[in-house]
What does this fold into?
Amino acid sequence: MISLIINGLEVSVEEGTTLLEAAKFLGFPIPTLCYMEGLSPYGACRLCVVEIGEGPKAKLVSSCTYPAEQGLRVRTASSRVVNARKMVLELLLATCPQSKVIQDLAAAHDVRQQRFKQEDEDCILCGLCTRMCEEQMMAKAIGFRGRGENRDLGTPFDVRSEECRLCGGCMYVCPACQLRCTYNEPERAVCGGCANLSPPCVEKDQFDDMMCYMDPCVACEQETE
It folds into this structure.
């Protein structure tokens, strides 16, 4: 067993457990996008970042790929982590502004607009479809091509793979394929129609190392009773 400290709580987990698995087991919510149970972790979206270490040596890592280490100190909702997640969501909104998955994640994290130029609805390179095709459908019909800004998804030479069975698994898991009605102007980019964007809550500014991570929020539950 490995002992580590998550949000000030000393816990023990089995060797090989990732920080995301440990946090979820303890009830600390961490948002994910490219992660899905049953598929290998990929760490592409960086939405699941957590802060490890202390002082100037503290750093952000993707919790879905980082293994638990003896004596490690982890914070899943520090102000640095929350700000990093909001930045990631703004970038994702610029790439794929009408994705229902990204819209809902943005609304849940109080991202009401994004500051970056919006592109056409595009692949966010999360790798969910390739892993679904390879690991669950045992086909390997699609994969990544190219590098850097030329990186995309498809088949070699754009010829349909004989391994593809048209199962639709790739579209089922794709965040960019799950669209909703919304606007394309940056100042109106986040719909938020399905989320409460202004809940009564505690003063989060008092907590730099630990923002509110309760879901549902205890303060909000008390206010609504």
